[in-house]
């Protein structure tokens, strides 16, 4: 637990992020330019401009391509470039002069607005999601470096990254494991008990989406089986120029489930390899200063940013949804309010949520449009009240039915 506490303490330092614009990708990019001793300012400006151009290209590729890792670095696999909006909130995180070249590395926010209502900060509703436990498929992988806390700590870091977008409310639910058996994940539909666990005794935990995943591998490329420390062998491995003993993998399968129906909306795999230079017997721990000094830790930060970006791309233009919590005549109360961007006068479509059971008595959920709207009359921070054109009993509207803003 002390490692996990250190992780939380280091959140602000390790992610190198400032609050982002709504609907913006946080992109890391590097630009280079010839270094001129007579005008170093111009050289730096040219390198900075090229880094910003590269950030825009990478963001474009996120919108229209796929990602993979090459030589331990997350790269773009397919490029079908489209020009995006402005690059903003540029932060220089590294600057080097070597071999007559100046290299500037930045993290910048790139607008990803695609025309839907929720891509615009002034009209966006704030979607809610819970980042749950990321179990290890092979727990023994974490023994090298004592990284067991990554299962909960990864959720903490990802929730923090997502909260940088003002249109996403990301709950750190890293202690909640909805996966069950990691070897059989993902499941097409989550059981109803899983959906209600997170919401138990707490209205503020009402969420639209459940984000989970399985860490398929943390394995080193060269297994370090149990043995007595050997100074000569350890020294050889530390100085091995081919790095056969230093690389380790990080393979993650990400799942996004709809919290109202339990349906699997999206899944994606991430694969990264990078150097792990710590002694195999060292109790480094996930999220410690020593962990982030490792090339593996630095590359993992880029993976977390990539996962956050992809979640935003998948969910930004999805409709805003909220639960109905109470009905009385024509009045209806819902589990969202002004903190979610709702205001009096907003009109939301009303849906019935029906439960069916298959031959194995497994529940399946269906949303039926009542063809009626709820007009909000009063909003509070976490709840709102509105009126229907007809009596709620006529439509058979009940608690746990939902409203959707299209």
Can you give keywords for this protein?
single chain, 406 residues, alpha+beta, Dodecin subunit-like, Rossmann fold, Thrombin, subunit H, 3 domains, five-stranded mixed beta sheet, 22% helix, 33% strand, Flagellar assembly protein T, C-terminal domain, FlgT_C_sf, signal
How would you sum up this structure, described in words?
The protein has three domains: 24-112, Dodecin subunit-like (2-Layer Sandwich); 114-315, ABC-type transport auxiliary lipoprotein component (Rossmann fold), CATH 3.40.50.10610; 320-405, Beta Barrel (Thrombin, subunit H), CATH 2.40.10. The chain is 22% helix and 33% strand. It contains eight helices and 16 strands. The strands form four sheets. Strands 11-12-15-14-13-16 form a six-stranded antiparallel barrel. Strands 7-6-8-9-10 form a five-stranded mixed sheet, covered by helices on one side. The protein has a three-stranded antiparallel sheet with strand order 1-5-4. α4 (150-162) crosses α8. The longest helix is centred in the first third of the chain and has 25 residues, at 40-64. It is flat and about 75 Å long. Residues 4-22 and 64-85 have low confidence and may be disordered.
């Amino acid at each position: 637990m002390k490692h996990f506490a250190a992780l939380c303490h280091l959140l602000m330092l390790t992610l190198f992020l400032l609050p982002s614009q709504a609907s913006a990708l946080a992109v890391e990019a590097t630009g280079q330019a010839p270094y001129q001793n007579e005008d170093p300012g111009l050289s730096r400006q040219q390198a900075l401009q090229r880094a910003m151009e590269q950030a825009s290209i990478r963001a474009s590729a996120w919108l229209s391509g796929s990602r993979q890792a090459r030589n331990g670095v997350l790269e773009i696999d397919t490029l079908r470039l489209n020009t995006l909006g402005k690059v903003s909130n540029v932060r220089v995180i590294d600057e080097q002069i070597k071999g007559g070249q100046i290299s500037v590395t930045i993290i910048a926010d790139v607008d990803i607005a695609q025309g839907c209502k929720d891509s615009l900060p002034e009209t966006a509703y704030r979607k809610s999601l819970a980042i749950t436990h990321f179990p290890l498929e092979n727990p023994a992988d974490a023994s090298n470096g004592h990284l067991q806390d990554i299962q909960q700590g990864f959720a903490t870091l990802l929730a923090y990254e997502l909260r940088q977008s003002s249109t996403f409310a990301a709950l750190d639910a890293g202690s909640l494991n909805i996966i069950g058996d990691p070897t059989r994940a993902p499941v097409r539909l989550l059981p109803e008990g899983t959906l209600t666990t997170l919401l138990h005794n707490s209205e503020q935990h009402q969420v639209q989406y459940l984000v989970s995943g399985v860490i398929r591998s943390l394995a080193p490329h060269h297994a370090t089986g149990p043995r007595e420390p050997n100074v000569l062998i350890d020294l050889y491995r530390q100085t091995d120029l081919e790095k056969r003993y230093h690389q380790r993998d990080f393979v993650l399968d990400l799942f996004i489930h709809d919290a109202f129906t339990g349906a699997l909306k999206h899944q994606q795999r991430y694969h990264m390899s990078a150097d792990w230079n710590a002694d195999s017997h060292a109790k480094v721990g996930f999220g410690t200063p020593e962990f982030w000094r490792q090339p593996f830790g630095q590359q993992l930060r880029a993976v977390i940013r990539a996962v956050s970006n992809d979640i935003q791309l998948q969910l930004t233009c999805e409709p805003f949804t909220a639960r109905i919590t109470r009905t009385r005549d024509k009045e209806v109360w819902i589990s969202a309010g002004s903190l979610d961007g709702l205001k009096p006068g907003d009109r939301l479509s009303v849906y019935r949520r029906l439960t069916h059971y298959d031959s194995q008595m497994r529940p399946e959920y269906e949303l039926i449009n009542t063809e009626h709207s709820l007009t909000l009359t009063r909003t509070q921070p976490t709840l709102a009240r509105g009126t229907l054109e007809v009596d709620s009993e006529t439509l058979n509207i009940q608690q746990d039915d939902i409203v959707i803003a299209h």
